[in-house]
Design brief:
Blueprint (H helix, E strand, L loop, with lengths): L1 H24 L11 H30 L10 H15 L1 H16 L3 H12 L1 E2 L3 H13 L13 H18 L8 H6 L1 H38 L7 H40 L3 H11 L1 E2 L10 H20 L10 H25 L13 H39 L4 H13 L10 H29 L9 H21 L1 H4 L8 H4 L8 H5 L1
Antiparallel strand pairs: 1-2
Helix pairs in contact: 1-2, 1-3, 2-3, 2-4, 2-14, 5-10, 6-7, 7-9, 7-10, 9-10, 10-11, 12-13, 12-17, 13-14, 13-15, 14-15, 15-16, 16-17
């Protein structure tokens, strides 16, 4: 009966933690509109699982500690205390915000994903239906802008930008009559109102700027008619051209800024309404954007495949190898601890590489040695924490001391895995070789590293530093050779998936103008 109440309290507390964690994640609710639904839901799931693990861990540890008290506290004390600590951690910004901002929002790629998609829309061609183009022309005419009044060649890029901005604004304004986008408009009402005001300011300033350019042309014409020698005045022409160029440059910058804001709103709407990339592109194409399909990003492919390789590889090792000695943990428990430790080592190298600039050599092609060492040390800290938790759950404080004593020499294994992987996943590693040879080099490097660590540990066991008795020569050879093969498989599977494409910058791009859209304007 007591076990029934324990399980009931654990399940009830877990459900409460899940609800509170989900509610806290989606506040403010607009955060999820800055990334894809899959990324947002994945980060929310990680957030919930993390706090759920914290709750269950605290409940188990406190239950073990309180059971040693005499007299023991009333039943359920450990569960209620664990729930209170977990809820305080969720609701306290000082405790939850660092993990949320530094890790989970980076995993969700907020807000970079929306800005990347917005830039993709700005760079794409835009073509509206004829009826919307006619409405845009009428709106510009009412604002004092006539794109069809045979404009000068120098002003044509500005007129094209204004037409595109007007057509896109009309498309966004149609969302108010579309029930599918109603929920998003309620969420982004402030941004929509600001965009409306920005469009009115743009048309007003553009009308004034184009009228000023027209008057400059009339002034130059009057100068040339009044004084024929003035037509030869290069200084006057240069000054007038500079005035026109400055006006058009400012107009184009304002129009581009509006287009970027409007495209960001379109990207957020597509993220909110549609889950799949195909549906999002289809909806954006219906708005008028001409998009090409994007390649599917391999965001966490290396980490996921590494987890699968570790799971099956360790399963084969525990099946073939002799029983691993431990005074604290059983064989299934050892399997879970070792698997979690090695997964933590992979994550220590891959996650910073994906989300932090300091973990990548970039264009400098210089390996960040500090990151390589830090990844190894982080994996060691993770291993010690995992063994501390495992020891406390099995045998209280005595289990903690015994387990840390058993595992202290084996910190070499996760350190080597994380440090070697952090070195291999740099974008410039073996870049002059073909993809197949790069993977072979990865496999050889990781296999040799694992074999060296295994040989060192076997030597420590043989010399009695690690007290496990005298090892059999066949067992030593099996461990060393299995480490070589297992490490080689990890090296062949994981590093190439965590690398990015090394960008190649053409020489002419380095000296290009700041904005390609302003090039026709500035060249006259």
């Amino acid at each position: 009966m007591e076990e029934f109440y324990i399980w009931r309290r654990a399940i009830g507390g877990s459900l409460l933690v899940v609800v509170i964690a989900l509610t806290a994640w989606y506040r403010p609710s607009w955060v999820s509109s800055y990334t894809t639904r899959w990324r947002s839901d994945s980060a929310a799931a990680l957030n919930v699982l993390g706090f759920l693990f914290l709750f269950l861990l605290l409940a188990a540890v406190l239950h073990r500690l309180f059971s040693a008290f005499k007299p023991a506290p009333p039943g359920g004390t450990s569960t209620w205390c664990a729930m209170g600590l977990t809820v305080c951690t969720i609701l306290a910004p000082q405790l939850s915000r660092p993990i949320r901002n530094l890790l989970l929002l980076r995993i969700a790629n907020v807000p970079a994903e929306a800005h990347r998609q917005a830039q993709r829309l700005v760079d794409a061609n835009f073509r509206s239906p004829p009826e919307r183009a006619e409405r845009a022309l009428v709106m510009l005419l009412r604002s004092g802008i006539d794109p069809q009044s045979d404009p000068l060649p120098i002003t044509q890029p500005a007129y094209r930008l204004l037409m595109r901005a007007t057509e896109l604004f009309l498309q966004i304004r149609e969302w108010e009559e579309n029930s599918r986008y109603g929920a998003f408009l309620l969420e982004a009402r402030n941004e929509f109102d600001e965009l409306r005001q920005c469009f009115h300011r743009l048309t007003l300033r553009s009308a004034r700027a184009l009228k000023s350019i027209e008057r400059v042309g009339e002034l130059r014409l009057q100068f040339s008619e009044a004084s024929p020698s003035a037509a030869q005045d290069e200084e006057t022409d240069k000054l007038l051209r500079a005035m026109v160029h400055d006006s058009l440059a400012g107009l184009c910058e304002d129009a581009n800024a509006f287009l970027l804001d409007a495209s960001l709103l379109c990207a957020r709407a597509a993220f909110t309404v549609h889950r799949s990339a195909g549906r999002r592109d289809e909806a954006l194409q219906c708005m008028g954007f001409e998009l090409t399909p994007e390649p599917t990003p391999r965001v966490y492919g290396g980490l996921l495949q590494g987890v699968l390789v570790l799971f099956f590889g360790l399963g084969v090792y525990f099946w073939l190898a002799p029983r691993l000695p431990s005074n604290v943990l059983s064989q299934p428990q050892l399997f879970i601890v070792i698997l979690t430790t090695q997964v933590g080592a992979l994550a220590s190298a891959i996650m910073p590489k994906l989300h932090f600039g300091f973990a990548n050599a970039g264009l400098t092609r210089r390996t960040p040695v500090t990151f390589v060492v830090a990844a190894g040390l982080a994996s060691v800290v993770a291993m010690l924490l995992i063994n501390l938790v495992a020891g406390s759950l099995t045998n209280g404080w005595e289990g903690v001391v015994a387990r840390l004593k058993e595992a202290r020499f084996f910190t070499l294994s996760p350190f080597t895995t994380a440090a070697m992987l952090a070195w291999l996943i740099q974008d410039h590693r073996w870049r002059r070789l073909s993809p197949l040879r790069r993977r072979l080099c990865d496999a050889l490097a990781m296999g040799c590293a694992w074999m060296a660590v295994s040989a060192l540990l076997q030597a420590l066991i043989f010399t009695g530093v690690i007290q496990r008795g005298t090892p059999d020569l066949i067992d030593v050879l099996f461990n060393v050779l299995f480490s070589l093969g297992f490490g080689a498989i990890i090296g062949a599977v994981v590093p190439h998936l965590a690398r990015g494409e090394q960008p190649v910058v053409p020489p002419e791009t380095m000296a290009a103008p700041t904005s390609a859209r302003l090039r026709p304007v500035l060249q006259g």
